[in-house]
Amino acid sequence: MNSYQQQNFKRIRKNSLSLLNYYLQDNLKFDLKSFKNKKFFQSLFVINKNKIMNTNSMLGHTSYIRSLIKINYKTVISCGEDKLILIWNILNGKLIKILNGHKESVNCIIKLNDNEIASASNDNTVKVWYIINGECLQTLTNHTAYVICVIKISDSMIASGSSDQSIKIWDIHKGTCIRTIRRQRGTFRCLMKMNLNKVVSGDNDNTIKVFDIVNDKVVLSFNGHTDLVKCFIKISDNEIASGSLDETIKLWDTSNGKCFKTLNGHDDWIMCLVRLNEKQIASGSRDKTIKIWDIKDGSCLKSLLNNLKNLNLNEGKCLITFTGHDGPITCLIKLNEYQIVSGSYDLSINIWNLF
Fold this sequence. Notes:
Elements (H helix, E strand, L loop, with lengths): L2 H22 L13 H11 L8 E3 L5 E8 L2 E6 L3 E6 L4 E7 L5 E6 L4 E6 L4 E5 L4 E6 L6 E6 L4 E6 L3 E6 L4 E7 L5 E6 L4 E6 L4 E5 L4 E6 L6 E8 L2 E6 L3 E6 L4 E7 L5 E6 L4 E6 L3 E6 L13 E3 L7 E6 L5 E6 L4 E6 L3 E6 L2
Antiparallel strand pairs: 1-29, 2-3, 3-4, 4-5, 6-7, 7-8, 8-9, 10-11, 11-12, 12-13, 14-15, 15-16, 16-17, 18-19, 19-20, 20-21, 22-23, 23-24, 24-26, 25-26, 27-28, 28-29
């Protein structure tokens, strides 16, 4: 193995131990027969039996982490290419529960309420889960290709975007598809709710489109990115931010589709965005960094971490760069007013102090 393969193997071995610890804690029954490679897991336990989980960097996934959500002040849920959904106690870094049911990579998870989540997967399905006992309540099976993203529309309705060139609207109480929005080509890579009748989509033609999901039509298009649009966040009622593979973040006026600011600073794809407050957003990138941006006046944030670069720049510039992950940053969530949580291709979940 080359040095990269050796490093990745060690990381997978370490994370697999966390899964073993989960099964072994509280006298839970653990059956090695449930794993395909029995000898591999046995050797993991022997080699790493004294390893303790770092509460600032939670390990458990054995392949790339794709999505994170916050349930409450102490519970965070992650999903990844290992087909698993992991429920964590963020206060002590312990793995609480594993939701296992998808047959391929889990690309996206969303919170429906305090007890239920939905997940989108490369097995072409959307699943609804009761996280208290880990039961799958619904499996939605109308897509014909990878389901890339899912969003909540209302208490009874969600929307999913797929590489089958469709957005599907689902009644999650009945488990039925109530509407399908199609386009001629391309994948719906990200979705965001504007209101009960409109969603924003990003796809392969580098544009952002606002869809009227009731009347099945495009009501507005945003043009400006020069590569695929990867993620969105809502800034205010009339403003959104988008991240792209063109390495930029753009701020848009949703009343007219015009870009009023472009944020430059990352050296690779923008993978995720999160709103911190009315003035600041955070971005995660394939360049392995997280950047904090002031989208209003460019005021500087104070950092207490030694591995941060403090930048005092002008309007729309980067304030802080976090450098701690060894792989692309795929997802970000706001934990509270002082902390954010990130997931990465390096298989770790990190908690960061903003101040």
